[in-house]
Write a structure and sequence with these properties.
CATH architecture: Beta Barrel
Structural class: mainly beta
Largest sheet: 5 strands, mixed, barrel
Number of helices: 2
Order of helices and strands: EEEHEEEEEH
Distance between the termini: 19 Å
Radius of gyration: 15 Å
Number of domains: 1
CATH class: Mainly Beta
Length: about 130
């Protein structure tokens, strides 16, 4: 599954974007708090510090939001976009305060976890 669109030049946000476009591979973690929930894939869930190790993602358009059915701890995604130069507040009060924020213009589901077997779909299809 690949979703994509261009980043609008007039995106309304309180900060400037970095010049570089980055590709990030991130895992989603469903923490029991409102901290950012997206972490570099090499972090282990028992060592992750949500307020420090994770980033907030923001879609460049509402049509690019990650579908809720994919927001399962351990699922891996690839995002293309740009970081804001400074930490940003989330869109609502429950977004966990200031955080490093990545504005993405496309995403792809890389791997999903089958929680019944404990294996990723990539592993189970090999």
């Amino acid at each position: 599954m690949l979703q994509s669109c261009s980043v609008p030049s007039d995106h309304t946000r309180s900060g400037k974007l970095q010049d570089e476009t980055d590709t990030l591979e991130l895992k989603y973690y469903a923490f029991a708090c409102y901290c950012p929930r997206w972490c570099q894939e090499d972090l282990k869930i028992d060592t992750v510090r949500p307020g420090r190790d994770c980033i907030r993602l923001e879609a460049s358009h509402d049509s690019l939001e990650v579908p809720t059915r994919f927001l399962v701890s351990g699922n891996k995604f690839r995002f293309i976009g740009q970081f804001y130069q400074e930490a940003q507040y989330g869109k609502d009060v429950e977004d966990g305060g200031l955080a490093r924020t990545f504005l993405y213009s496309s995403f792809e589901v890389v791997d999903t976890i089958d929680h019944r077997s404990g294996m990723s779909e990539t592993e189970s299809n090999e």
